[in-house]
Amino acid sequence: MNELTYKRTQSAHILVSILLVSVLGGLFLAGISMPQFWVIGIILALIGFLFSSLTVIVDKTAVYWYFGPGFWRKTIALDEIIRVRSVRNKWWYGWGIRYTPHGWLYNVYGLGAVELHLADGKKLRVGTDEPDSLRRTIESECARSH
User: Fold this and answer.
1) Could you please report the per-residue DSSP string of 7-45?
2) What's the domain range around 8?
């Protein structure tokens, strides 16, 4: 990774809160002695940990992003990007990693995102709470690299 020009981590407070309430509520309602609820609780806690945040990084060569502690890393070289725009996702697209009518979406919270149009014709969206700032940074770095 080269010198960073942008780095932003967006936390998924609502997702983690929902999972925590679900785990604790399920254990309380079902009784702590039921082992299947412990397994479900551990799975939900793991999901909450892995998707607790989304970090987006831009340097002089690429755009990178990953969830939580480094889960599901993705890299797009700047020379693959032909267009970038700020967008607002539909609420029903949800959070996490999803396929939408606009390509793959990587998101942990909110509706803001940047849409990357790639040279191979594919599109994808990366969720952010700073879509305009991220878009400007990517556009600036793409202009320098092309």
Assistant:
1) EEEEE-HHHHHHHHHHHHHHHHHH-TT-HHHHHHHHHHH
2) 1-146
Q: Find the CATH number of the domain harbouring 28.
A: 2.30.29.30
Stretch (H or E) spanning 86? strand 81-88
The span from the CA of 61 to the CA of 81, in Å, is 11
* 0.70 surpassed by pTM: yes
- In tens, the pLDDT along 85-137 reads 999 999 899 888 999 999 999 998 889 999 999 999 999 999 999 999 999 99
Q: Which residue has the tokens 């990007």?
A: 81
Split into its structural domains, the chain has a count of 1
